[in-house]
From TrEMBL:
This is Glyoxylase-like metal-dependent hydrolase (Beta-lactamase superfamily II). Its cofactor is Zn(2+). Belongs to the metallo-beta-lactamase superfamily. Pfam families: Lactamase_B. InterPro entries: MBL_superfamily_lactonases, Metallo-B-lactamas, RibonucZ/Hydroxyglut_hydro. Residues 45-264 form the Metallo-beta-lactamase domain. It comes from Edaphobacter modestus. Keywords: Hydrolase, Metal-binding, Zinc. One of its GO terms (molecular function) is hydrolase activity. It comes from the Bacteria.
Length: 279
């Protein structure tokens, strides 16, 4: 049996213009729009995903950390962290505590921790996994581990000192509208696909269940409706590339019964519980 579980690790509050950018705006223009936008959205979930597969348990992303509340943890020189985001994670909401509640010994029970990308709200819980196999897309790692990554809201200075992830390239066979793939399981029922635009090297995860497909979109979009309406977010590094990613996600989700699970969609957990598909 294959199962997907949503694990919420706190919340993040952002502007409306970050979730949905204005069509036709450049990457820079969209970021200016975020700073000018007076509309703050209600807190959105920060989500990690647990995949149960006959080959083992796979954790997709690690959520964020309560250390965000510690003065100086987020760089004050960065205007985005100072003015455009509010992260709220209690210590008992961190991913390690949540796995303990589920009866999962992360050291023994997890086959791998897989990062869709290295943004702070996806890699913030890495400190819980010093003894685990950690997998990161090579392209995203190379971008995130440097000054450009810091400008793009990654925090390499906060990564655990022991972190030496297994880097992978998504160069396997094409799957539907996706130009390549990377299998996580030998039966290829769990695999990664390239979904760039939000940040270089971003990937999403596809899980083929017995009677349903699950599309863990991560940050390729902030909500399912933006896939349906092909609306690119405001934080994208490349609006045209993000649009092509949305179109690929839409085409895939329209081709079979698929539950779409972005990382910050407030309706994602409910869709999963009710088994509500894209179509």
């Amino acid at each position: 049996m294959i199962k997907v579980t949503v694990i919420q690790t706190g919340t993040v509050q952002i502007k409306s213009a970050q979730v949905t950018g204005k069509p036709g705006r450049s990457a820079l223009g969209r970021k200016i729009d975020i700073f000018k936008d007076p509309v703050w959205l209600p807190p959105l979930p920060i989500t990690a995903f647990l995949i149960e597969h006959p080959e083992g348990l796979f954790l997709i992303d690690t959520g964020d950390t309560a250390q965000n509340s510690t003065p100086g943890y987020l760089p004050r020189w960065h205007p985005f962290f100072r003015y455009e985001v509010s992260v709220n994670v209690a210590p008992d909401e961190e991913i390690g505590v949540q796995l303990d509640r589920l009866g999962i010994d992360s050291k023994k029970d997890l086959k791998a921790v897989v990062l869709t990308h290295m943004h702070h709200d996806h890699a913030g819980g890495l400190h819980h996994f010093p003894h685990n196999r950690i997998m990161v897309p090579r392209e995203n790692w190379r971008f995130a581990d440097g000054f450009k990554g810091k400008l793009a809201a990654c925090l390499p200075q906060r990564w655990p000192v022991w972190l030496k992830p297994e880097l992978f390239d998504v160069k396997g066979p094409a799957v539907g509208p996706f130009t390549s793939s990377f299998p996580l399981t030998s039966d290829k029922r769990v695999f990664l696909v390239p979904t760039p635009g939000h940040i270089p090297g971003h990937v999403s995860v596809i899980v083929r269940g017995d009677d349903m497909t699950y599309l863990i979109a991560a940050d390729a979009t902030y909500k399912e409706d933006n896939i349906r309406n092909e609306l690119v977010d405001g934080i994208t590094a490349d609006p045209a590339l993000s649009l092509r990613t949305l179109q690929a996600l839409k085409k895939f989700a329209s081709s079979q019964p698929t539950i779409v699970l972005p990382s910050h969609d407030p309706d994602g957990a409910t869709r999963l519980m009710n088994r509500r598909t894209f179509l």
